[in-house]
Automatic annotation (TrEMBL):
<dbReference type="InterPro" id="IPR003719">
    <property type="entry name" value="Phenazine_PhzF-like"/>
</dbReference>
<dbReference type="GO" id="GO:0005737">
    <property type="term" value="C:cytoplasm"/>
</dbReference>
<keyword id="KW-0413">Isomerase</keyword>
<dbReference type="Pfam" id="PF02567">
    <property type="entry name" value="PhzC-PhzF"/>
</dbReference>
<comment type="similarity">
    <text>Belongs to the PhzF family.</text>
</comment>
<protein>
    <submittedName>
        <fullName>PhzF family phenazine biosynthesis isomerase</fullName>
    </submittedName>
</protein>
<dbReference type="GO" id="GO:0016853">
    <property type="term" value="F:isomerase activity"/>
</dbReference>
<feature type="active site">
    <location>
        <position position="50"/>
    </location>
</feature>
Length: 289
């Protein structure tokens, strides 16, 4: 087995410009010779919610094949690790467009540089879709969270939203309810595995376009994700289908505040496309001593 200490694992905090904010992700840019078991072991040793592995690359064509592993299992798609990987590649090869081949299909990213030198990555999701969740799907989640039905916002009904993987969306009626997150880790994880959900995307609507979010991630062995690009993309598709904003629109999702790791995710909805775009930056983290 190859240990993380013997592989060049880059570490970034995504959806933030501050090392103390955002969602940390591991990035391995040369993983072509690693086995599935080795990638899983490295992701567990790194310990972040996900580590991205570039398993095939054609840099002259801007084309890369990615796989993502949480500490417990492979996942089909991870937004914050995708942003981190795009910025890591741009730091080596320069800004511009890159194509990532991932489990759900091919996605295009564009990396641009700001006047202050900050790099921004925008990924366009696969086609999104959403449907209302059944009571049998969302009521056990409320029980695991310790929430009551009266604490949900009826303007945003429970739904299962997809943008590469499935997320249950639940909207809290108040910021205070969202802030008090203390859930049954095993019960929620078991229910999520039954339905194939990657996270539960808990949101509170500050306005029609500004949302605060929290994402329990027990199926990945992580209590909570401080930034979840895949869930943000799925939620953007849900908002568009709900018809609660005029199109085109930009949503601002603030995540991780209650963890002390604020993240800012910008989600763009087009008027004539069932895909959504998610924009964020990332900052390099020091190697562990």
């Amino acid at each position: 087995m190859v240990a993380a200490s013997r592989v060049d694992v880059l570490r970034y905090a995504a959806f933030t410009g501050e090392p103390a904010g955002g969602n940390p992700a591991g990035v391995v840019l040369d993983a072509g010779e690693l086995s599935d078991a080795e990638m899983q072991r490295i992701a567990a040793e790194v310990g972040y919610s996900e580590t991205a592995f570039v398993v095939d690359a054609t840099p002259e064509r801007g084309s890369y094949r990615l796989r993502y592993f949480s500490p417990r299992a492979e996942v089909a798609f991870c937004g914050h690790a995708t942003v981190a990987t795009a910025i890591a590649i741009a730091e080596r090869s320069g800004t511009g467009e890159v194509r990532f081949e991932i489990g759900p299909g091919e996605m295009t990213l564009n990396v641009t540089g700001g006047q202050d030198g900050t790099l921004w990555a925008t990924f366009t999701s696969v086609a999104t879709r959403s449907r209302l969740a059944t009571a049998a799907e969302w009521e056990p989640v409320l029980s695991a969270l310790g929430w009551s039905g009266s604490e949900l916002d009826p303007a945003y009904p429970p739904a299962v939203a997809y943008a590469g993987n499935d997320h249950l969306v639940l909207a809290a009626a108040s910021r205070e309810r969202l802030a008090r997150l203390d859930y049954d880790f095993e019960a929620l994880g078991a229910h999520m595995r039954t339905h194939g959900w990657t996270t539960v995307h808990l949101v509170w609507a500050q306005s029609a376009t500004v949302f605060h979010a929290r994402d329990p991630f027990p199926v990945g062995g992580v209590v909570e994700d401080p930034a979840t690009g895949a869930a943000a993309a799925a939620f953007g598709g849900y908002v568009r289908e709900l018809g609660s904003v005029g199109l085109p629109a930009r949503l601002h999702i603030v995540q991780g505040e209650d963890m002390g790791r604020r993240s800012d995710l910008m989600v763009d909805l087009a008027a004539d496309d069932d895909r959504v775009s998610v924009t964020g930056t990332a900052v390099r983290l020091p190697r562990p001593s």
